[in-house]
C-alpha cells in the first residue's frame, strides 16, 4: 500500500499533514474489555499509543450494567463451558473404565457444587490476569459503562454514577454480544447461557431450545452429568451452516448419549406449575422440565452506546457496519469482535484486534483474513472443522470436488464397548488437488483440527497429506491415510435446506 492510502486509512484526511494535530486525552479509547478489546488495547499500547479502556463491573452473569474484564469468552462463555464439558465427560469415562478393569461401584456419587466452585475460581483468576495484562502495558482501565458522545469523545459512567469525559483520536467499539430470549408467553421462566453456567442446582429434567453451538454443548453437558435432556430445534438437523453429513453424525451421537431430539419443533409457551415448568410446542406436545435453556442466538451490544447520535451505521441486526479494516463510516470510530457480527468466534476477535492495532498504530495496514478459520463444537464427542463444508465446496467449486471419508470405531471403544463411531472427512478440489475442507467428529477432534488448519492455510494438497507419515496408533493418522475417493461430485450447483 502506498503512503497516500495509508494516510487516508489512519487519519481520514489528506493534505493536512502540515497542520498541528489536535490534542487528545488518549490516542485510543476502547469500549469493552473482552477478547477483542483487550487485544487491541495491548497491541496498540505496545506500538506506543496512549490507551484507555472501559468495562462494566465483574459478574459471572451479565446484564446491561454488569460484565467484567475478560468478556463473554473468559467469564461466561468458552472457558467455563469447556470446564463443564470436561466435568460432564467423566460420566461416560467412568462407564467405559469398567471394561478396562476398573472396579467401580454401581452407584457413583456426584457433587455439582464442586465443579461449579472450581469454575468460578478459574474465571475470577482469569479476570485478574486480564486486568494485569492491561496494567502491564500501561493501559488505563476505567470500571463503568462507556458510550460515545462525539466522533472523538467518550463518556464513562462510573459505579457511583459520576460521569467522566475523555477525548480520543480513535475510538474502538468492542462490546460483543448478548444472549436473546424468544418472544413467547412465559419466556421469563427460561434462562440463557449466562445463567446456565452458574446454576446453583443441577437440573434433573432440562429442555434446550436451539440448534447451534450453545444448544448442542449444554445438552451434552447436562446429559453427561445425568440429567434427562430434550433438545428442540427448527431444522431437520442441528448445527445449521456446518457440513450436513457431519451434522447427521453429531445428531446420532447426541441420541446415542441419551439426548431426546425434537427436530423441526419450536416452543410456543412456558407455564409455571407446582411440579416445574410445563413446556408446550408448536406440534401440540407438552412436557415438564425443571429448567428451560434458550439458545436461540445472540444480538450485538450496541443499544446503549449512543451510536445513532454520532451517525455510526448499524445493520438490521444492530451490528456495527465496518469496512475490511474494521473502520465504521465515522473515520475516527472502529469496531471489532461480535459487535460487528462478522464471524463470531473469540480467536477471530483477537485477529481483528491485532489487525486494528497494526493498521492504526503499527504502520502496517492489515485486513483480517477469514479464510480457513478452524472452529469446534464441544458436544460430547466434539465436532471440529476447517475450510469449506461439502455444500459450500459444491457451491463454490469451478470443477469437480473429491470427497474422502473415514468412519471407524475409536481404538478405545474396541475395549470399552461404546458404540460410537468417529467420522473424518476431506474435501479436495479435483483440478488443483488442494484440500479445501476438513471435518472430524470424535474424541480430540479440536486438538487434531488445529494442525490440519495449518496445512490448509499453507495450501496443502491431497498428495502432500498422503505423503505425510502418520502417528500410530492414533485417530489423527486417518487424515493422512484416506486413499480411496468416497465420491466425486461434479461442479453442478446443488442446494440443501436441512
From TrEMBL:
InterPro entries hit by this protein: FAD/NAD-bd_sf, FAD/NAD-binding_dom, FAD/NAD-linked_Rdtase_dimer_sf, GSHR, GSHR/TRXR-like, Pyr_nuc-diS_OxRdtase, Pyr_nucl-diS_OxRdtase_dimer, Pyr_OxRdtase_I_AS
EC number(s) given by UniProt: 1.8.1.7
Highest taxon, organism lineage: Eukaryota
Cofactor: FAD
Stored Pfam families: Pyr_redox_2 (PF07992), Pyr_redox_dim (PF02852)
GO CC terms of this entry: cytosol; mitochondrion
UniProt keywords, alphabetically: Disulfide bond, FAD, Flavoprotein, NAD, NADP, Nucleotide-binding, Oxidoreductase, Redox-active center
Domain Pyridine nucleotide-disulphide oxidoreductase dimerisation: start-end pairs: 373-482
Stretches assigned to the FAD/NAD(P)-binding domain: 26-353
One Gene Ontology biological process: cellular response to oxidative stress
Entry's cofactor comment: Binds 1 FAD per subunit.
Tagged with keyword Cell division: no
Record-annotated disulphide pairs: 73-78
Binding site for NAD(+): 210-217, 297
Catalytic activity: 2 glutathione + NADP(+) = glutathione disulfide + NADPH + H(+)
Residue positions of the active site: 472
Residues holding FAD: 82, 146, 175-177, 338
GO molecular function, one term: flavin adenine dinucleotide binding
Similarity section: Belongs to the class-I pyridine nucleotide-disulfide oxidoreductase family.
PANTHER family: GLUTATHIONE REDUCTASE
Subunit record text: Homodimer.
Role this protein plays: Catalyzes the reduction of glutathione disulfide (GSSG) to reduced glutathione (GSH).
Name of the protein this chain belongs to: Glutathione reductase
Annotated source species: Tripterygium wilfordii (Thunder God vine)
